[in-house]
Specification:
The protein is α+β, with helices and mostly antiparallel strands. The chain has a single domain, classed as predicted glycosyltransferase like domains (Thrombin, subunit H, Beta Barrel). The chain has 1 helix and 8 strands. The longest helix is centred in the last third of the chain and has 26 residues. The chain starts with 10 loop residues before the first strand and ends with a helix.
Length: about 120
Amino acid sequence: MSLQEQRQQHRYTIGIHTEVYRKSYNEEPIFTCKVRNIGLEGLKLPNKDLTLRIGSRLHLLLVTSGVKGREEFRMDAKVVWKTAKDLGLSLYPLSSDEQSALNKFLFIAKVALRSRERARLS
């Protein structure tokens, strides 16, 4: 028996610095990590806080720096699955404007990553 992919949206495989918060952006993040698998409806990140449970609500701050400077994107998410190693998060429904802004942010992050890779190879 094979498992069928359930995702409805494309996933980006890029490393984006991410700060994870429990309640608000005004407190210290519970952990920081690199998100390497993200789409417009969800993402996977390393499980660096074993106290998180399925259903936990989190606030995420994604940060990338590109040619034009630092870009940030804030979003709310909910833990939908977890293992000792990873967390699967579903993003709270985004409006079409928010989805457009996230898609633009992910594109900028992808371009910034490629620029850093080219500079490293030069």
